[in-house]
Design goal:
Layout (H helix, E strand, L loop, with lengths): L16 H7 L4 E2 L6 E7 L2 E10 L2 E9 L2 H21 L17
């Protein structure tokens, strides 16, 4: 489970930094308040988690998906079939149209 009303993954709101660190031993401290950061997987995707503590209790978790390369790959994979479908209704010019070209070029 990657999300919950009680926290994120195995963490729970109100946990002290030591307990979160025990769940994510590779996490490192990012502030004097004990905030932690870790690179991990969320929903089967690479992500960076930032755990924020207020008065030594887990108060917020920020999830940043590391998408730059994978998002581009997914976009290209999705755009190719759409481009092919859109262009297939036009008369053939005898050349292949790439995902970056329009059907009219």
């Amino acid at each position: 489970m990657y999300r919950s009303n009680d926290g994120l993954q195995d963490t729970r709101w109100g946990m002290p930094p030591e307990d979160v660190k025990a769940l994510y031993p590779e996490a490192w401290m990012t502030s004097p308040q004990g905030d932690l950061r870790v690179h991990t997987q969320v929903a089967e995707r690479p992500a960076t988690l930032d755990f924020v503590f207020v008065q030594d209790k887990l108060a917020a978790v920020s999830v940043s998906f590391d998408l730059e390369a994978s998002l581009r790959d997914e976009f290209n994979a999705l755009s190719r079939p759409r481009m092919a479908a859109r262009c297939s209704s036009r008369p053939s010019t005898g050349r292949t149209v790439s995902a970056r070209e329009s059907c009219t070029s």
